[in-house]
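Side project, low priority. Logging it here so it doesn't get lost.
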Amino acid sequence: MRLIAGTKRGVRVLRWIEGERVAALRTRALEAEEIRAAVQRGSTVFVGTGNGKVFASPDGGAAWEPVLERLECDAVCCLATGRGGTSPLFAGTEPSALFALEDGGGVWREIESFRALEAAEEWRGYGERRAHVQTIEVDPHADKRLYVGVEIGGAYASDDGGRTWHVIGDGLYEDVHRLAVDPRRGTRMYAATGGGLYVSDDRGLSWREHPEEVGSQYCTDLRAGSDRAGTSVLYLATAGGTPATWPRRGAQARVHVSRDAGSSWSEAAIGARLTSKEAYTVITPDPVDREGVFVATDGGTIYHGRRSGERWSAIYRGTEAILTLLVI
C-alpha cells in the first residue's frame, strides 16, 4: 500500500506492506508547500496547502499538478468527498468558507449558503489564526448529508449537499476539531473538540460530554471504523492541554480506543518514545486490514497497530511534523 503523508514541507509518498519493519520512502514532492489536507476521489489524490492551493495526482503521488483555479483563502484546512469517483470534492478553508469542485472540471464553486451562516453565528479566531473550517464529514450512510465543524464556531449540517444548513451544536463545545459518523448507526455522531469528546444520538441536534476522562481532554484527532465482526471501533488522540501549553507542561499525548461505539475507552499501548512536547496529530484507518490503524505525530513518526492497539510498530521516522495522512 501507499502512504501519502502531508508535512510542513511537502508530500512524502511511502510504500509499505504489512509485515515489513519500515516503510520505504518513494517520492518527495511539493516541498515548498505546507500540506494540511489529503483525500482520494476515484483514482486521483488531492492535497490542500497552507497557502490556499490544491494539487492533484492521478498516479498515487508520483506526479502532481495544481488544480486549475486557486481558492480565495489563506489556507485549505480540510478536504472531503463522498463514495465513488464522481462525488463533489469539498474544501474547508481559513477564513471559514466551503467550496465544491464538481467532477470533470477545475473550477471551484463557493457554497455561499454556508458563508451566510457567519452573519448569524459568532465564529472567532485565536492567536494569529482566523476562524476556519477544520473538519468536513460526508455521511457514509447518505452522500447528500454533510457535517462541518468550525474552529472556533461549532457544528453545522446540510441534508441537501450544501444548499441549506442548520446548526447542530446544542451542548457542543464550539472548538470543533473532528466530526465523525458511526459506521453502524447513522444517527450517532462523535465530536473531538478542544474541550473533550462529545457524543450525539440524533445526528448532532443535541450533544453530551463523554462522562469518562476523554470527555475533558484536548482532542487532536478522531476516527471511526468497524472491525471484521461489524462492531464500531473508535480511535481518539488527546493531549493534556492546548498546544500553547506543550512547551511548558508537555503534550501528555495519548491514543484511546473504544470497541463499543464510544461507551468505554482504553489506552492504546503504542509504546512510543515521544518527547514530552510531541503529540499525535493524525489517525487513519488501514484500508486493507479492518483491524489496523495508522497514527502519526508532529515529530514525523508513523505507527501502525492492530487489534485495538495490542501490537504497534514505528514504520517511518521522518523529521517534519505530519499534518495529514492518506493511505491508499
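Brief comment: The chain has one domain: 2-211+299-305+313-327.
Revisit when time allows.
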